[in-house]
Amino acid sequence: MLTNLRVWLNHFEYHAEQPRALASGTRSALRPEERRLIARSIAVFQLGEQSDGSGLLRAACHFAAAQGDELLPRITELFIREEQRHARLLRDFMDEHGIRARRRHWTDAAFRRVRRLAGFELYLHVLITAELIGNVYYRALEAATGCQRLRALCRTLLADELAHVGYESELILELRTRKPAALRALMRLAHRAFFCAAACAVWLSHRGVLRHAGHTAAGFVRACLAQYAFHLDPPAAWSASVIGPGRRR
Ligand SMILES: [Fe+2]
Ligand SMILES: [Fe+2]
């Protein structure tokens, strides 16, 4: 059974009852050149946040039944609801500024296709890839705009996403400890390669916003990899203290 699910259930229940609100009174003024810069990009991220989550929930239920983690389905439901709320917040902002929503984009389709390939653990790896890169993107979007409302929206989403990354990385690190060393090494290698490819794809699709925030292609990938290292390659002592004594990466 996974170690800290009760803590995470409390976290997601608390935020379901008291979702982070955008500070009232922030001005939602987007200059025409800003709107041109971000419109397509923000619509792609809104599409990524939007999902009915049925595949993830199914995978979590199967995993929970096999492992005896009875809190996992409820946590997953609340997690999906939080992501859907992000999609709504972004959509509200887009509607305010006449930015059309997208129905599809190749990066979103690729993430969804890979997620469907296997079970809950693969879902976690794909999700955390999107979240870690998304966090670098939301910081860049905040830096690229002078619109107070959009800046507040980026910070609100980031606060939730950092918790999501904490949750997913803890699960991934704990599940890693159950595997033989050679398989662990192979999985990390494969995940890092997928992560780098995903960061490059996000750069290609969002380079206008990212350049405006001061990123170069190499700098953006480096920033994403730094997030990866911080959350998924922590010192062994940290893993042991969070995941529990007697378990090592
Ligand atoms: Fe999100
Ligand atoms: Fe998230």
Mean pLDDT: 91
Which value, in Å, is the CA radius of gyration?
18 Å
Task: Tell me the total number of β-strands.
Answer: 0
Tell me the β content. Answer: under 5%
Number of helices: 10
Shape: globular
Bound molecules: fe (ii) ion
Helix content: over 70%
**Structural class assignment:** mainly alpha
Sheet with the most strands?
Answer: none
Amino-to-carboxy terminus distance? 17 Å
Spell the H/E element sequence: HHHHHHHHHH
Uncertain segments are none
Description:
- With 249 residues, this protein is mainly α.
- Helix content is 76%, strand content 0%.
- The two termini are 17 Å apart.
- The protein contains ten helices and no strands.
- It binds fe (ii) ion (2 copies).
Provide tags for this entry:
single chain, 249 residues, mainly alpha, 10 helices, 0% strand, binds fe (ii) ion
Summarize the structure.
This protein has 249 residues and is mainly α.
Topology:
Blueprint: H1 5-17, H2 32-49, H3 54-67, H4 72-96, H5 106-115, H6 120-144, H7 148-176, H8 181-212, H9 217-232, H10 236-243
Helix pairs in contact: 1-4, 2-4, 3-4, 4-7, 6-7, 6-8, 6-9, 8-9
The chain binds fe (ii) ion (FE2) (2 copies).
